């Protein structure tokens, strides 16, 4: 199996009239991927980490302590000086944390993330940073909500103007200033208009920026497009394009099935076949842990449903006796996590096979790799230690 790129280390609010739930912000798929890369979160104190940072570097850590805001955007601290550790949110939750930070200042917050050496402090090797993807802080005060019926973007787009002028509430992924060409550029009525999208259904948002109480998204920033947004407003349909004049905008939790629904625009990517670009463990690795979680990263968005029944983990010598596994797909990193249901036997060689029928979101089949076997498109071999 070819190794082409390295998986990035950094993985993964209340608003005017809209309240977002204050819940841990990583999906189950992300949690599986992070656990595979950094191990299970290790509970520790800030003092423990600062005393022996080498023991925690590159590993998942769970910390609880007093939260304070730093001097720069998305930089915070946990713990009390002089025993304080710098922390920064993963991009997927940065806007959410930014919105909460004012209410958290000086209060206890729990975060889970990976401890990294802060490369900006080249002259001080002792400086570390916790890049966190999960948090739990004080419950924010209740905010007034706008009473409007919920409507999917699919229903809104295909309503043929029947919802025009009515107050509706929709949820979609923030797509900024139409950076992916989700809508025809000529259909944009004002330079401040921005795009909200769910699967292949997109609308222009008008009259209100992508901002609310405590947060502001950047229409030109790719990383801000990992946020899901709830918009309350009145739609207007012109020449088959839906515009939503917004009254309230707020951050929202990604809905169930968001990974499969948040498909990219049908652009040049539609013609590129999917391929495997990274695996963990790497092909041929010796000494993998018995409780290993396997990660397979692809070059583009995959159809999550196509994995069902087409991912097989087996002993090298037992072609007809596959292991029971659990699957989780992280759309943000195009990564499939394969978790065996039981510890794998020590000293044995195993094969992870991706079978025919796995496709991307455009319906293209996975490229057949050089190490593939009978019925398999790709195959990863590794040996369990012990």
Question: How would you describe what is shown here?
Answer:
With 386 residues, this protein is mainly beta. The chain folds into three domains: 23-136, Bacterial OB-fold (OB fold (Dihydrolipoamide Acetyltransferase, E2P)); 153-265, OB fold (Dihydrolipoamide Acetyltransferase, E2P) (Beta Barrel), CATH 2.40.50.200; 271-384, Sandwich (Immunoglobulin-like), CATH 2.60.40.1220. The chain contains five helices and 24 strands. The protein has a five-stranded mixed β-barrel. It has a five-stranded mixed beta barrel with strand order 9-10-11-15-14. A five-stranded mixed β-sheet has the order 17-24-23-19-20, with no helix packed on it. The radius of gyration is 23 Å and the shape is flat.
Structural topology:
Blueprint (H helix, E strand, L loop, with lengths): L13 E2 L2 E2 L8 H11 L3 E2 L2 H6 L8 E10 L6 E5 L2 E7 L1 H14 L3 E10 L10 E9 L16 H5 L10 E7 L19 E5 L2 E6 L4 E2 L2 E2 L11 E11 L2 E12 L5 H4 L14 E5 L4 E4 L5 E5 L12 E5 L6 E2 L1 E6 L4 E6 L8 E7 L20 E9 L2
């Amino acid at each position: 199996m070819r190794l082409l790129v390295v998986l990035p280390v950094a993985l993964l609010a209340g608003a005017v009239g809209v309240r977002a739930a204050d819940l841990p912000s990583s999906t189950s798929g992300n949690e599986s991927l992070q656990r595979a890369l950094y191990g299970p979160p290790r509970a520790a104190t800030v003092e423990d980490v600062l005393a022996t940072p080498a023991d925690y570097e590159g590993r998942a850590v769970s910390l609880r302590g007093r939260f304070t805001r730093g001097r720069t955007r998305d930089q915070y601290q946990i713990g009390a000086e002089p025993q304080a550790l710098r922390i920064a949110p993963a991009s997927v939750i940065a806007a959410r944390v930014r919105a909460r930070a004012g209410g958290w200042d000086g209060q206890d917050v729990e975060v889970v993330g990976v401890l990294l050496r802060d490369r900006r402090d080249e002259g001080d090797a002792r400086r570390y940073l916790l890049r966190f993807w999960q948090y739990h802080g004080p419950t924010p005060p209740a905010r007034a909500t706008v009473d409007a019926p919920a409507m999917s973007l699919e229903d809104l787009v295909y309503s043929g103007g029947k919802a025009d002028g009515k107050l509706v509430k929709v949820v979609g992924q923030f797509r900024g200033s139409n950076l992916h060409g989700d809508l025809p550029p000529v259909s944009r009525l004002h330079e401040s208009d921005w795009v909200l999208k769910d699967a292949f259904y997109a609308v222009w948002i008008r009259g209100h920026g992508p901002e609310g109480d405590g947060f502001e998204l950047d229409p030109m920033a790719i990383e801000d497009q990992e946020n899901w947004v709830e918009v309350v407003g009145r739609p207007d349909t012109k020449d088959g394009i839906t515009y939503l004049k917004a009254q309230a905008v707020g951050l929202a939790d990604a809905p169930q099935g968001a990974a499969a629904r948040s498909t990219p625009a049908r652009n040049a990517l539609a013609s590129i076949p999917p391929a495997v670009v990274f695996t963990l463990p790497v092909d041929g690795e010796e000494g993998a842990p018995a409780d290993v979680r396997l990660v397979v990263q692809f070059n583009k968005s995959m159809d999550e449903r196509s994995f069902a029944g087409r991912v097989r983990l087996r002993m090298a010598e037992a072609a007809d006796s596959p292991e029971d596994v659990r699957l989780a797909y992280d759309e943000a990193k195009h990564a499939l996590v394969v978790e065996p249901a039981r510890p794998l036997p020590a000293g044995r060689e195993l094969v992870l096979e991706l079978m025919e029928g796995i496709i991307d979101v455009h319906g293209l089949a996975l490229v057949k790799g050089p190490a593939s076997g009978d019925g398999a498109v790709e195959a990863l071999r590794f040996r369990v230690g012990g």
